Amino acid sequence: MRSKFDEQLKTLNEEMMHMGSMIEESIQKAIEAFIHQDADSAKAIMEGDSEIDREQKKIESLCFNLLMQQQPVARDLRTISAAMKMVTDMERIGDHAADISEMTILMSSDKPYRVNIEHVKSMASETMLMLIRAIEAYVEKNNDKAHIVMKQDDVVDELFDKVKAELIDFIREHPEDGEQAEDLLMVAKYFERIGDHASYIAHMSNEMHDNHTDFSPAAWNELNIVMEAVREEINITCNAFLNDDKEAAQRVAPLGVVITHLCDELKMHHVERLSNGNC
């Protein structure tokens, strides 16, 4: 049983690395499309965001299966709980790549950029480096690299403040080009958010390898509630099928909605606990 569990943990790690590669590629392409005002490439990035969403759901499903199969030890819980939080941040980074691409399409007719975008390009480079290092910190179990990423977030925040100040001055001097400046501010804000998410990924990677993180009684209680609901759903489904019981079968869908709600609450509470240094 343990060997199968370890194999699934290995699969989880592989899927996390795969999703990390997906968002790295998406952000890199979004940056290139933005700099070159390439609307066609931007559209392709937006269309590819659904693949990242599917990978997120695949990883979340794997995490819940791991939690429900047996009583994981503390080390396993750190790995699974960190993965659940990290995958949410990775999915949001993918969303922001699509957001940047959407703004690129809006500005593609305004060639060339009439606003100096050097600091925005610097933000793009810094956030890309943060993302790569955050994924490496997870893969390599490197807490030192994770700490570097978290400190690097301050650099991105400072760059965003510079971009904001420059764009405000530009709008005052060139109100006729205010719309493009506002669009560029949105792009800068998306890069700033990507930096935040990369920092959170690094933080979760650090927590995953921190031996002082324990799974709290509150977390166990919430998990047990979800597990019992899932067991009940499976039992009702099996009995309805075996006995050709249509009335019982009709109870499955509403219970599925309840389970989805419980899972959403569990994830929300789990993220809150992790942000406070608990599990």
Report on this model:
With 279 residues, this protein is mostly helical. Helix content is 86%, strand content 0%. It has 9 helices and no strands. Helix 4 packs antiparallel against helix 5 and helix 5 (143-173) packs antiparallel against helix 6. The mean pLDDT is 83.
Which spans of ≥5 residues are poorly predicted at pLDDT below 50?
A: none
Mean pLDDT: 83
Beta-strand segment tally: 0
SSE ordering: HHHHHHHHH
Strand count, sense and barrel status of the largest sheet are: none
Radius of gyration: 22 Å
Strand coverage percent? under 5%
Secondary structure category: mainly alpha
Shape: elongated
Termini Cα gap: 25 Å
Which helices and strands, and how do they pair?
Layout lengths: L1 H35 L2 H31 L4 H34 L10 H23 L2 H31 L4 H31 L8 H27 L2 H4 L2 H24 L4
Outline of this structure?
The chain has 279 residues and is an all-alpha fold. The chain has helices spanning 2-36, 39-69, 74-107, 118-140, 143-173, 178-208, 217-243, 246-249, 252-275.
Task: Jot down its keywords.
279 residues, mainly alpha, 9 helices, 0% strand
